[in-house]
């Protein structure tokens, strides 16, 4: 009996179900990181503007130290999903275990570097004399949690590649609740100030890492994957992640430059920048939920040698990205008068933040396209192109951002430069998407 052909409408429905099934729980897990930072910002912000300014500098440095290794999640998702599509679950989990071992090694190295250099890093960012002590305290304590953060990244990538985004959601919710309770108890209950906020986050991160390890180890034993470190596998993970490391370093350089420019505008501006960056990160992770679904789905389709299915779901995800960006932009405009006072009662900081949020709102449809295409190309294992595209973007953004204080521009101009950066990213990613060169099938690229 001949099977009836799948209609375009039926195919869209199937893709929508796949996207929703992975993206909705992925959203909850993804927003955990910015929610951690937002909770810290809200709690520390009521200690004073200097403390919030110190948190802004320290969190930018800390996020950079962790996020440069986001390939532990992204590259692992793509590699595991390809092997799942090819029907080899044992090899998929083994790939993930190699990534976890690599995460532990990298985490130890980062701690060894950041702890002794914390005061110098804070000074390099141009923190004021009043904000620098708070920034150094927060950075030193939070650095101790970096190994746990990297394990969380790698283990999350394993589960996403296995088409499981629900477990990361449950762990993220538990971690966020624990972080909030610990921060309130240590900052105000124990009177530890900004140090209490840092310790609360570190404890929550180690708890999350422990849960992930239990889940992944059980899966490895069930499918016969080895738990021992394999030097060849660890080396292969590092090599596969190198282009994404370059891409992420360039992206983090953009965010660091933006924070450094804001810091030189004054404590009020950098405090407002911290509030906006917290919201921008939340919006970015919300959009990235579709991209995470794309990484897992695209990798699975390509691993199963279904190039046409990969193209179809990519087109559908771009449509989702645009629609989500429009909705988020409207929400930012409507809620901005209510959002900013949650983080500070200082009218100077509020006046700096409100107009810049309009620019952030207008940029959201562009961000929707960027994050989706970024995720699709990661899922396809197209890391080298992503690296070059982000380097081009950095080269365009840097001179424009550095001109902001020279020309007398304020925080709104800084976020105008950020919007231009996203537009350049969109152009470079769209060219690759339209070329079709990212479509390479097989269990490995």
TrEMBL record:
GO terms for cellular component: plasma membrane. GO terms for molecular function: antiporter activity; xenobiotic transmembrane transporter activity. The keyword Transport applies. The chain crosses the membrane at residues 19-39, 51-74, 100-118, 138-162, 169-191, 197-217, 244-263, 275-299, 320-340, 352-373, 385-407, 413-431. The keyword Transmembrane helix applies. InterPro entries: DinF-like (IPR044644), MATE_fam (IPR002528), MdtK-like (IPR048279). Keywords: Cell membrane, Membrane, Transmembrane, Transmembrane helix, Transport. It is found in: Cell membrane. It is a multi-pass membrane protein. Signal peptide: none annotated. PANTHER family: PROTEIN DETOXIFICATION 44, CHLOROPLASTIC, PROTEIN DETOXIFICATION 44, CHLOROPLASTIC-RELATED. Belongs to the multi antimicrobial extrusion (MATE) (TC 2.A.66.1) family. This is MATE family efflux transporter. The lineage of its organism: Bacteria, Bacillati, Actinomycetota, Actinomycetes, Kitasatosporales.
